[in-house]
Amino acid sequence: MIMKEDIMMKFKDNGLADGFLTEDDLRKKCPCAFMTEPSNPDVSTLYVPANTKTVIDDMAKLGWYPVDAKQQRQRGAMKYSFHMVVFQNPDVVVRNLEGGVDCWPRIILTNSHDGMHAFKFMVGLYRVVCSNGLVIASDQFADLSIRHIAYTFQELRDLTAGVIAQLPKQIELINEMKRVILTKKQKIDFASAAFKIRRGIKEDVPFMLPFDVAEEIIEPVRSEDHGDDLWTVYNILQEKMTRGGFKASADPAKKPRKVRAITAVAKDLDMNRKLFRYAAGYITESKGADNQ
User: How far is CA 125 from the centre of its chain?
Assistant: First the structure.
């Protein structure tokens, strides 16, 4: 269930982070959030965008504070344009059946001060057990956007209300994932599909990881992740694909090399979206088998 009333646990004590990011923290991690001029030299001189800092301030008025921020380095005039800021509300929490904190809902804002993109918002869940900062980004939940021009605080208020409205649907999908039990073969196939997504191999290209490599990838990092349900396996693979640390190769003829962590913002979000979409396919498959 979603609790918006008072909670016993303060944000700084919940094990997810030391606290919300200060403005100084944000300026160090994501200086382009404070840009006041568009990075695109071809944009009209009449273009006066609302910058990300304005949204950060307005999100704070609604109880949502920054917990992470990144920017993507680009060449030429577009340098440091695309960036992401992640928000969390200390009073909005998803609890498990035992009453403990299961997930913290988060709002992920992406923006580019290039005169061509709106503010984009996605809904994510930060898993307490895993604490790896990964997000759920799925086509099954609407991405929300606000235009730079004519930006209003009321639009942002309506958007955050929409985020809260989406959460029950998102939580129910997670519960469905917990009810789907994967076979060993399905987990091996899932690991290969996850690596295929991570390496950007086209869907119609046949690919299968060596059995021992796939087994290493699906091996849980912590005791809480031991389980065969889809939600648990998905989180193991999500963490492994994002953080890397294992050895694999997209070309069977080549020696496996250590896979590095993803640092590019756009690649991280894109991979998470595709991986969650693939995971959701097991739910459809399971429902089809039940109806036979």
Answer: 7
| Cα dist from 291 to 172, 177, 207, 268, whole Å | 20, 17, 30, 36
103 has which bridge partners?
Answer: 94, 127
Q: Is 73 helix (H, G, I), strand (E, B) or coil?
A: coil
Query: What are 193's two structure tokens?
Result: 């599909």
Residue 65, token pair as written in the block: 């504070």
Q: Give the mean pLDDT per block of 10 residues along the chain (292 residues).
A: 32 49 90 75 60 91 92 60 88 76 83 75 76 59 74 90 83 88 96 95 89 92 86 91 90 88 85 90 79 60
Handedness of CA 65, 68, 74, 76 (dihedral sign): positive
Terminal CA-to-CA distance of the chain, rounded, Å? 32
Q: 264 — phi, psi (to 5°)? A: -75, 130
Q: Any idea what DSSP says for residue 34?
A: G
Does the model's pTM come out above 0.90?
A: no
Distance CA 200, CA 120 (A): 23
**Quick one: pLDDT at residue 132?**
55
Instruction: Show the CA angle centred on residue 166, arms to residues 165 and 167, nearest 5°.
Output: 95
The string of DSSP codes covering 155-179 is HHHHHHHHHHHHHHHHHHHHHHHHH
Of the CA atoms within 13 Å of residue 249, those in its CB half-sphere come to: 7
Output the pLDDT for position 131: 54
Half-sphere exposure of 291 (CA within 13 A, CB side): 6
Backbone angles phi and psi of 23, in degrees to 5: -65, -35
